[in-house]
Amino acid sequence: MRTLLSGRKMKATDAKTIQEIGIPSMVLMERAAMAVAAEAEKAAKKDEIVWAVCGSGNNGADGIAAARMLHLKGYPVCIYMAGDENRGTVELKTQLSIARKLGISVKPWQEIETEKKGKHCCVIIDAVFGVGLGRPVEGNYKRCLDDLNQIREQEHTFCVAVDIPSGIHADTGAVMGTALKADVTVTFGWEKMGTALYPGRSYAGICVSEDIGIVSLPLERDEETVCTLEGSDYAALLPKRNADS
Questions:
Q1: What is the rounded CA–CA span in Å between residue 174 and residue 135?
Q2: Helix, strand, or coil here: 175?
Q3: Would you say 89 and 130 are in contact if contact means Cβ atoms under 8 Å apart?
């Protein structure tokens, strides 16, 4: 049996860990980025580029940190900003500053079309939207996700989503106008309802839950915290049978 959280409940639990327990958000972010980088590295190649496509929130900051970790391991990476870095969170600006000091290329997402003519992209790190998305994806964001979906399908590029596929509602699994399909979703602390419910489930690929240090505070069973049965749970409910029955 595994626990699923709503986006609001996850954000509240994350905030309690930072504000009440005192674990700095950058510590959680580094651990989250390590988990994302580890999954991306399984499909990455040293002679092909990794793209980290990032929004302006902390989900984007996770993606930037993951790109930096792959860069330090010798993988060619490029960070594409789908969001406005000038309106970004403190953590995002910090991660961008670190990346630039290490010589990592940071470009607006519109330059992806130019990059396509160069090295083949082997992995896309999807860090555009996190669990806080509450309205339809429109404008430049929609064009960005649609372009990435087209690249992924045409060039068979592997995609790793940070916490939840961009464009999927964390509570309902609804596609908020458009969404980027992932091969693997690295989710933090607990899986989100939106990656267990369809159509979000079909966008998440393999969902990997990672412990990044979020304190496991008591979770009340309510409409924002639910449990889902797994195969092992069903097996435990079935009576044992004799081999010759």
A1: 11
A2: strand
A3: no
What are φ and ψ of residue 96, in 5° steps?
A: -65, -40
Strand partners, 160: 125, 184
> 56 with 93: CB under 8 angstroms?
no
Task: Return the amino acid letter for 149.
Answer: N
The rounded distance, in Å, linking the Cα atoms of 140 and 7 is 24
Mean pLDDT value of segment 226-233? 76
Computed over its alpha carbons, how large is the radius of gyration of the chain? 19
Find, among 139, 209, 208, 126, the residue nearest to 168 by Cα: 126
7, 192 contact by CB (below 8 A): yes
**Contact call for residues 126 and 160 (beta carbons, < 8 A):** yes
pLDDT at 232 over 80: no
Largest CA distance in the chain: 70
Contact 144, 177 (CB under 8 A): no
On whether the CB atoms of residues 217 and 190 are closer than 8 A, the answer is: no
Round to whole Å and give the CA distance between 106 and 132. 24
Q: pLDDT, tens digit, for every residue of 73-109?
A: 999 999 999 999 999 999 999 999 999 999 999 999 9
Q: Which two tokens stand for residue 190?
A: 């607990």
